[in-house]
Structures are given as structure tokens and as C-alpha cells.
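Database export, one record per block. Field names are fixed; values are copied verbatim from the stored entry.
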Amino acid sequence: MKDLSYLESHGLNVSWWGLQNEPNFDSNVVTPQQCNDPTERIRLDALATPPLGVGYSSCYYSQCQYYDAFKAVAPKIKQAFPQALINANSARGQLGASPVALDPATLDLVDAWTWHFVGESSDRLFGSKGEAMLTYSTTKGKPSFEDEFEYQPSDFRGNWSTMNTAQMLMNWMVFAEAPTFFWIHAAKPCQNAESLGYGLALWRAPEGVNATGLCEGIEPGEFRVDPYNANAMLPFSRQVPWDSWRLNVTEDVTRPNQRVMAWETPGDAGAGGPLHANTPGGLLGVAVTNRDMSIPFETELRLADGAGRTLNGYRFSASVFNVSIGTVTLPANITVQPLEMLFFTEY
């Protein structure tokens, strides 16, 4: 509480609070009754093991420990900072915080379930796989979203990862009704082994770091955009206005390597954020990905009412950013090249 009050007193708005980052990666359901049973509590706490290896600073909670702490602290946060979004548990959502989800008193304090699928395939959120996990009965209508994504060195696959990240974002929104998606690391030191898969940019320290490896071409004290990650995230920041409404899309076949997402710009003037302060409301946007490494994806885009709207097209990939491909008039046959995505906007 003192930390948050200090931030607020120095002019920073407290907009989001979580008890602990990655307190556990559990997916087993634990009930409040189990946590309150002394014998069962001892058994559960003994079974709980820290999810992270030596070398990473962490504070691990068993599900019951998390429940106890959340029950004590979250009501005070809600009272003192009613504007703050309270999330749980930041690693495995309502599964890793299942006692919180199953207690009506603590469930009422939760504003969103948050998850970490670090370096995983977007298939994790594909179709029935994501639906089965994210429509777990105790969501109670609470939104769920990813609040950290990056790639460990063993998971990073260059151009494929760019498109996988884009599809992870889209799959969250299409299959899990997520209201947002977060990458987490703005920049990472260029000499770090994990940095290529972690940052939106690579940063070189002002002194003491040689211009070798990933640091080559970066001046001391400067940074360079990492296109593998930035070109997956920035297209959405650039092309999709804030507070847009996602539109329902019917696919002929739901494919793991291709995804389509459509949206409509917000109706209120200026609601679209600084890049879209003057974008009119009610206009159409569509994004189509192709994560396949070798085969082009051909499809037809059409509106349910058959309307012939004209859209501006843009191409993105790990090596291409916001290149115009002209206009198309719906219905339209389009081809998305391997490891590329196309955006079509009416604005």
C-alpha cells in the first residue's frame, strides 16, 4: 500500500495491480475448502514446487498461499485504488489462482485473469484447445489476456516467430475474447544471449560493450529495433485504433497456420489513440496471417452482406514493414506469402 501511495503522490496513476508476477504455473484446481483444511493444506503446500530454476529472482506461492495473501491485500487495494485493474495470477490465470476463482468474495475482486505463454506456439490458443482452457467454468465472465510474451533462446525461430507472435495475439482475441495483449520487454541489452527473442529493441550500453554479435552496428548508448519482435507487434499498434470493436469472422476451415481478424473503428471522435485521433468511426479493418514456412495462402475476403467496400492493403513480415500493396475491393481474392501478414483498412 505504501508503495502505491508513494507512486500516486509523485504523480503516477496506479492503473493496474497484481499480487505477484508468476507466483506459480499450476493448472490443477485447488478449492478454498482444501486450503482451509489443515491436513489438506499441509499436503498441498508440500506438493507445490517452485516453477523456476536457479538464477532467476522469484517469489513463489503455492495456490493456497496466493489465496491467503490475495484475500488479505486485494480488498485494501480495491478500496484505496478503485480505478486499478486487479489481475490474477499472471502466469496461469484462474487455473493458477483457482481458490481465488472459487471463492465468491475473492472472485468479486478480480477484474481480469492474466496468463504467460512464454515462447509457445500460437496453437496453444487455437480452436478447441484454447476454448477448453479459457472457458474454464470459474471465469465468470471475467476477461482473460496475455500480459507477458517473449521467446527463450531455445524457442526462438526467427521469421517463424514473428508470425507466431502475431497469431498468438490474434488467437487470444479471436478464440478467447481477449480485450488486449502485452509484449513485455521494450529493449534488452544486445550482449545478452536471450535478447533477440525478448526485446522490441536491442540496446548497447554507453561503455564496456564491444560492437560484436547482436551489438554490431549499434552505437554506444543507442538502440536498434529488433524486427523479429517489433514487426509482429507494431503492425497492430499502427493499424488498429484504440477501442476498436472486433467483428465476428466465419472461416471456411479453421487453420492453425493462418488466421483472420476483423474490426471496426470506434465511433467516438478521438477514441482511436494518437495515431488515429482523426480516423472516423465505423470503418473496417482486416488482418490475415500465413505462418506456413513455404506455401502461400490463397483465400477470398467477403462481407456477409456482400457489400463492395474498398480497402487499402499493407504487407508486414520480419523484413517488411507497412509496405503498400494498393487497394482491393471486396469481395476479393488475396494471396498471403509464407511468413507474412496483410492488413486491409478502409481508412
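Remark 1: The longest helix spans residues 63-80.
Remark 2: The mean pLDDT is 92.
End of record.
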